[in-house]
Design brief:
The complex is a heterodimer.
Chain A lengths: L4 H28 L10 H56 L5 H22 L20 E3 L5 E3 L7 E3 L5 E3 L4 H4 L3 E2 L5 E2 L1 H13 L3 H54 L3 H26 L3 H4 L2
Chain B lengths: L1 H26 L9 E7 L3 E3 L2 E3 L3 E8 L3 H32 L5 H17 L4 H57 L10 H17 L3 E4 L5 E4 L8 E4 L2 E2 L2 E5 L5 E5 L20 H37 L13 E3 L10 E3 L14 E4 L9 E5 L23 E7 L5 E7 L3 E9 L5 E7 L4 E3 L5 H7 L29 E8 L2 E6 L6 E7 L2 E5 L6 E4 L4 E3 L2 E2 L3 E6 L2 H9 L2 H4 L1 E5 L5 E6 L8 E5 L5 H6 L4 E8 L4 E7 L5 E8 L2 E2 L3 H7 L2 E5 L4 E6 L4 E7 L11 E3 L2 E5 L8 E5 L9 H8 L12 H41 L3 H33 L3
Antiparallel strand pairs in B: 1-4, 2-3, 5-6, 6-7, 7-8, 9-10, 11-12, 13-40, 14-39, 15-33, 16-32, 17-31, 17-33, 17-34, 18-19, 18-32, 20-30, 20-31, 21-22, 23-29, 24-27, 25-26, 25-30, 28-29, 35-36, 35-40, 36-37, 38-39
Helix pairs in contact in B: 1-14, 2-4, 2-5, 2-6, 2-13, 3-4, 3-12, 4-5, 4-6, 6-13
Classes of the chains: A mainly alpha, B alpha+beta.
């Protein structure tokens, strides 16, 4: 079949421009280190890329929330540890005061130290986290947990709502702690429930008045208080463990997702460079052959 | 000789024209649409000389156009098909780039929004977290608007492109009509100038690129152009007539092509419409609009609607930093309701972001048990009546309705219905009751408020969850027929007959302005004609203003005078006196103290029943003044054992029912009297609302407590003496329940097909991507077909310089040979002339 002259030229230029387009694309890919430059390049991959990117983002935001929780738990732990130490000291002082070898004046001296320690416990109960929220007020995070009234009695101003924060897919982590769960009431042998600070105040009064049965009751109370403080400490510790292991899980899944994303999106340099060389060679061949063939014309030979 | 000359000259002339044709071809080597012209040289008629024939040479016959109609039409069709895929592919790719792009696409903005809700859930008290939540909400809204704007841009562009092309089509068809006119001058296609036919074919090819056409050629080369099947009637160009077409936008944005002046079918008389466009550039663009752009646009609108509805429902259920119920978070601007282009946030103040839940439970710090409680709310689904029965439900002032209710034998009660919490100023009257009929009003937890004490059988009959009772409800009569501050939740509820002071509107006599009304004292009238009471009457049969009335020992029918004595005997306690009127036919009871503010309540005592009141001439009514504080179940019982009917009349002022907010209005306390028996107390009125027992299985979490939709769960079994307070959480700023639900919305399957919002969006991008891939594959295939067709056509009609060069040489030689013949002829003639 005959090939017309215009077809010859058209065909050749068309082919050359196709190769040039391919070369330009490869060059853009190499410059951006991405295989998929715009979603329309690989429409079937566009959806997968979006999904993976969203997943990575989600893992990062869960990690952020868990880091906030970690900071809070360590602030709680600090407050609880100090409180536990103070309670130990109070118990020591109580045992000391219960000892009959002490006189009323000595007991008064012990009472002074007890009062100071009780004050410190109140201020530990009012500890705050980095954002200025009170740790032990439940959800009333802008109100101090324990308020000392005009008559000296300490009143709990927080609430008991248990807040939870999302920490991953289908995972939630307990967040707030009520002050009265940590500085919890004591239940005496006769079934009577007495508040934490009320019991301490009674003990201090007993020490001041040299009331030995009262002091002994106070020592027993302190043991109970210490036990429940340790329980809360253990709980904080285990919460921290849960959060830490969740953080590790998140890190791993983030890595996995990122590598899946990279496989779809990122450029394989070795094959890209090879492709570029191949295309350049093809372009050179097309151009060279075109110039040779187009110069052939019968008119040259008719003299 | 002369023959030789004429043969020679004729030949020269012929080859001269042939050379001209060849040079024409060479000159037109790059002309668009040019078909190669070939010469046909035919021999002349032979002449008979003697016994034989001698040829007379050759002459130039015609220029032949190297043209194949089939190949040409093939080329046109494949051109149409190819041109329909190109705009489709390019527009679809643009849409994908918009929808799937990082900065313009929706998924990034939505992920950001949910991330912000998660951070806010971690620190609900922080104003910074609240502000950034609002910012990200605005981010989502503005992304919706941008996307919608980009889609609108595409819509406009495609419409304009179709508009331009339609104008172009009209220009082509007009030119074809003119061409047809010129072609009509010759009778046969062979005689037509080749250039004219080339022009015709070029126009047809350009036209086919824009829209798929069908052609019919007549003998002289004129063409009939049409779209679709109705060749003869639905034509675009016929002879020298062309029909312009126009594009119209319908209400829903669809584009319709039609004739500018639609012709009528002479046979059927109907108006002809343009057949639908399927190929060509216009076909591709219309296809794109219909299959890709419009569905994407409406999917975006649907997504916006769903996000707004779901997020608003969650937000309205939450409490903001100021202790108020949250409002709508997202909305649409007035003129763009329901469309993504009008999507916006409605909250500007960070303090109005509702993160907290509506209820909160607090364990009393002195609880000896270790149970920790959690509270939630779910709209309850009670069986039984949902309002007053039948017509009684429509008895809103000024209307008043009456219903007849049947009472059977096996179930000797009738359900009057549910008085909803918030129903105001209700009056329910039992007309003409028999001695054994009585109203019974109970709460959903079995607190009996009005009526007669129920025996075991009646209790079992009424206290069923099918009647609307809460599960595990127990019967209690502490609030039965109480008055004043001893009533249930301090409600003003009374059964009997009541007379209240009446408002008398006052007007200024001169100006007519409304003045403060005066109150007319309450007055209860007994008339002699209605009086049917016979003594002796036991003590405690009647109660006046809460005081039991003494016995009447006199037997036989009682007169008004006797009643007057009886009433006035107790007026020190009841504050009510009775006065006979002048003609002695009626007895009026009025108050001694608080004449303009107090009311008169005549009710039944422990020994009385509604029939006794009927003997005094009064029906028994239930009066609830103000709002009903709780849902009340109203029945009519008949203790006679025979079937009967109860005639009930009702009227109320309004219903302002919101149980959830009523629960929030006053704090509740759950108090465990033993390890399993508990009572629920309204702390404001100290009313015991419910007494129930808790199912506790050792080793397992205790069952939850449900009260009017509130759900209370315990971590372990509570102990005797434990107290739990439930309140409305107006100051629990660290509570994040509502925000947790907002964060969960990300994974909620709210879109059709069980997909989450993000998934549904990505799915749509995927679908558009599929269209792009198919279009790309189709385009590649069609390009191959088109190239083939083009190559075939060029093979027949295209000019090859090499071929022309060889033709040039051939004809040149022929020309020279013929010229030589003429030279020889003249030499021969000279030879004859030289003969002396």
């Amino acid at each position: 079949m005959k090939i017309s002259t215009s077809m010859l030229f058209d065909r050749a230029t068309e082919r050359m421009s196709t190769i040039q387009n391919r070369l330009a694309t490869t060059q853009a890919q190499m410059a951006e280190t991405k295989q998929v430059l715009s979603p329309s390049d690989a429409p079937d991959q566009a959806a997968a890329i979006q999904r993976l990117r969203g997943e990575v983002q989600r893992q990062e935001s869960h990690t952020e929330a868990l880091n906030v929780a970690m900071r809070r738990f360590s602030a709680e732990e600090t407050a609880l540890k100090s409180s536990s130490d103070i309670l130990t000291r109070i118990k020591e002082l109580g045992l000391q005061a219960a000892n009959d070898t002490l006189g009323p004046d000595d007991r008064k001296a012990v009472g002074v130290e007890l009062k100071a320690l009780r004050q410190e416990l109140v201020s530990l109960g009012n500890s705050r986290d980095d954002s200025g929220n009170y740790l032990f007020s439940g959800t009333r995070v802008k109100t101090p947990a324990f308020l000392e009234g005009a008559n000296g009695a300490v009143v709990y101003q927080g609430d008991h709502t248990q807040t939870q924060i999302p920490a991953g897919v289908e995972r939630i982590v307990q967040f707030t702690r009520a002050g009265t769960d940590v500085y919890s009431r004591v239940v005496r042998d006769n079934g009577e429930s007495v508040g934490f600070f009320d019991a301490l105040d009674q003990m201090i009064q007993a020490v001041d008045n040299s009331n030995t049965p009262g002091i002994q009751q106070g020592v027993a109370d302190t043991t109970q208080m210490s036990n429940s403080m340790d329980l809360s400490l253990a709980q904080t510790g285990s919460d921290q463990k849960v959060v830490q292991s969740q953080l590790d899980v998140l890190d791993e899944s983030k890595l996995r997702l990122k590598s899946s994303l990279s496989q779809i999106e990122d450029l394989d340099y070795a094959s890209a460079v090879t492709k570029m060389n191949k295309e350049m060679m093809a372009l050179q061949a097309a151009m060279g052959s075109f110039s040779k063939i187009s110069s052939l014309s019968l008119f040259e030979y008719i003299r | 000789m002369s023959d030789l000359l004429s043969i020679g000259s004729a030949g020269v002339g012929a080859y001269q024209r042939a050379l001209a044709t060849v040079s024409n071809n060479i000159a037109n080597v790059s002309t668009d649409g040019y078909t190669r012209q070939d010469v046909s040289i035919i021999s002349n008629q032979p002449r008979q000389i003697g016994g034989g024939y001698i040829g007379t040479g050759a002459r130039f016959d015609a220029v032949r156009r190297q043209f194949d109609a089939f190949v040409e039409s093939n080329l046109r069709n494949s051109n149409s098909e190819l041109k329909s895929q190109e705009p489709l592919l390019s527009y679809v790719n643009r849409l994908i780039d918009i929808m799937g792009g990082e900065s313009v696409g929706l998924t990034t903005a939505m992920n950001q929004f949910f991330e912000a809700s998660r951070s806010l859930a971690s620190d609900p008290a922080s104003t910074i977290a609240r502000s950034s939540f609002l910012q990200d909400a605005e981010g989502v809204a503005s992304r919706f608007r941008e996307l919608s704007g980009q889609m609108e841009l595409l819509d406009n562009e495609t419409r304009q492109s179709v508009q331009t092309d339609v104008g172009q089509i009209n220009a082509y068809t007009k030119q074809l009509a003119l061409l047809n006119n010129q072609l009509s001058k010759n009778a046969s296609a062979d005689k037509q100038p080749s250039e004219l036919l080339d022009q015709r074919d070029l126009l047809l090819r350009s036209l086919s690129g824009l829209v798929g056409i069908k052609t019919e050629f007549s003998a002289n080369g004129e063409v009939l152009v049409s779209m679709g099947d109705s060749n003869s009637e639905g034509y675009l160009v016929k002879n020298d007539q062309s029909r312009p077409i126009i594009i119209k936008t319908s209400a829903n944005g669809d584009l319709n092509l039609n004739y500018l002046y639609p012709p009528t079918n002479p046979v059927t008389g109907q108006q002809l419409a343009l057949p639908p466009v399927t190929s060509g550039k216009i076909g591709g663009v219309l296809n794109y609009r219909e299959q890709v752009l419009t569905p994407s646009s409406s999917a975006l609108n649907d997504l916006a609607m769903t996000l707004a509805t779901e997020a608003n429902a969650i937000h309205r259920n939450g409490i903001d930093a100021e202790g108020q119920l949250g409002g709508d978070l997202f909305g649409f601007s007035a003129d763009q309701a329901g469309k993504a282009s009008g999507f916006k946030t409605l909250i500007q103040d960070a303090n109005r972001v509702a993160a907290a839940g509506q209820f909160r439970v607090m364990d009393n710090p002195l609880n000896s048990g270790d149970a920790q409680a959690r509270v939630g709310y779910q709209t309850p689904d009670f069986s039984g009546a949902s309002g007053l029965t039948g017509l009684l439900a429509e008895a809103q002032k000024p209307a008043i309705s009456t219903e007849m209710l049947g009472i059977g034998i096996s179930q000797p009660f009738a359900t009057v219905g549910l008085v909803q919490q918030g129903q105001t100023d209700l009056r329910l009257t039992l007309n003409n009751p028999s001695a054994t009929q009585s109203f019974q009003v109970l709460t959903r937890d079995g607190r009996h408020l009005l009526g007669t004490t129920l025996n075991q059988n009646d209790q079992a009959m009424l206290m069923k969850s099918a009647n609307g009772m809460e599960p595990l409800a127990t019967y209690n009569t502490s609030y039965l027929n109480q008055s004043g501050s001893n009533t249930y939740m301090d409600m003003d509820i009374f059964m009997g007959v009541k007379a209240e002071p009446i408002e008398n509107q006052q007007f200024n006599e001169i100006s007519g302005a409304v003045l403060a009304p005066t109150m007319l004292p309450a007055a209860l009238k007994l008339s002699a004609s209605d009086l049917q009471l016979s003594g002796p009457v036991a003590a405690g049969t009647f109660q006046l203003n809460g005081i039991d009335m003494p016995a009447i020992t006199q037997s036989g029918p009682l007169s008004l005078g006797a009643l007057q004595t009886w009433i006035n005997g107790k007026s020190g306690d009841t504050k009510v006196t009775a006065t006979l009127n002048a003609d002695g036919n009626s007895l009026t009871l009025s108050r001694t103290t608080e004449t303009t503010t107090g009311d008169i309540r005549l009710g039944m005592g422990a020994n009385g029943n509604p029939a006794d009141l009927q003997h005094l001439g009064f029906g028994t009514s239930i009066y609830i003044k103000g709002k009903a504080a709780d849902d009340l179940l109203v029945f009519v019982t008949d203790s006679s054992g025979n079937p009967s009917a109860a005639n009930i009349t009702a009227q109320y002022t309004s219903i302002d029912n919101n149980m959830k907010q009523a629960l929030r209005a006053t704090p509740l306390q759950v108090h465990f009297k033993t390890d399993t028996q508990y009572e629920i107390i309204d702390t404001k009125t100290q009313t015991v609302l419910a007494e129930r027992s808790l199912a506790v299985v050792p080793g397992m979490q205790p069952a939850s407590i449900s009260y009017r939709g509130l759900k209370l769960e315990f971590s372990t079994a509570p102990k005797q003496g434990d107290k739990f307070n439930i309140d409305s959480n107006t100051d629990g700023i660290g509570n994040n329940e509502a925000m947790l639900q907002m964060a969960d919305l990300e994974n909620a399957h709210v879109m059709p097909g069980g997909l989450t919002m993000t998934e549904s969006y990505i799915e749509h991008v995927n679908q558009v991507g599929n269209v792009a891939r198919q279009a790309s594959i189709a385009k590649d295939a069609l390009t191959v077909v088109y190239d083939q067709a083009k190559q075939t056509r060029d093979g027949i009609s295209g000019v090859s310089l090499d071929q022309e060069a060889s033709d040039l040489v051939r004809y040149q030689q022929a020309y020279q040979a013929n010229a030589k013949v003429m030279q020889v002829a003249s030499q021969l003639f000279d030879a004859i002339l030289q003969v002396r």
